[in-house]
Amino acid sequence: MRLSGRGVRCVRGGREVFSGLDFEASSGEAVAVTGPNGAGKTSLLRLIAGLLTMADGSIDLWGGEAELTLPEQAHYLGHRDALKPALSVMENLCFWRDFLGGAAFDAAESLATESLAAESLAAVGLDHALRLPAAYLSAGQRRRLSIARLLAVRRPIWLLDEPTSALDAAGQRLFAALMGDHLSRGGLIVAATHAPLGLAARELRIGEES
């Protein structure tokens, strides 16, 4: 699988954010998108995810599922955690699992998908808080819950915006291990970050320091 962009141009609010951008990422590879604030790191991820429209250029996926679009094969994890405070940890994850992966059609499938949700929460160290309302989670726990979405619905492309924000050292090591496992399975990662990811990554720099 190969993700590539050629001559990508981004315009937001009538302002050109970047132009003529080329990039490439292949299965088993992580790309760290770096640059100063406002350079367009988040915008690039949102372009790949189909959440923004390119002003010019192309972004293509080779070797993916032919019947699925690029956004349907990608997880976009924003720098803000999209959680409902009144819902429990499990309910939040099950919402995203159903939204991203489709609701279960029968009782047996529902049980299997809830089991996967529980396994995903255990993988990020939240198995003790399944019934706890998300409003009671710390910033680091909220980030772990968002990361669990990547595991509950498997997609080959992870688009991560400041993925280690709010994570302590133990959380960063855990997430690095999860990213490494994803790459070993043939996935690919494009991450906008100011901090090291904790694993080998090719750098794609956008913009220049003023």
Could you explain how this protein is built, in words?
By secondary structure, the chain is α/β, with parallel strands linked by helices. 32% of the residues lie in helices and 25% in strands. The strands form two sheets. Strands 5-6-7-3-8 form a five-stranded parallel β-sheet, sandwiched between helices. Strands 2-1-4 form a three-stranded antiparallel β-sheet, covered by helices on one side. Helix 5 (169-184) links the parallel strand 6 (157-161) and strand 7 (188-192). Helix 2 (89-101) crosses helix 3 (107-123), helix 2 (89-101) runs parallel beside helix 4 (139-152) and helix 3 crosses helix 4. The N and C termini lie far apart (36 Å).
> Which strand-content bin applies to the residues?
25-35%
* Class based on secondary structure composition and strand pairing: alpha/beta
The spatial strand order of the largest sheet comes to 5-6-7-3-8
Low-confidence stretches: 103-112
How helical, in percent, are the residues?
25-40%
* Beta strands, count: 8
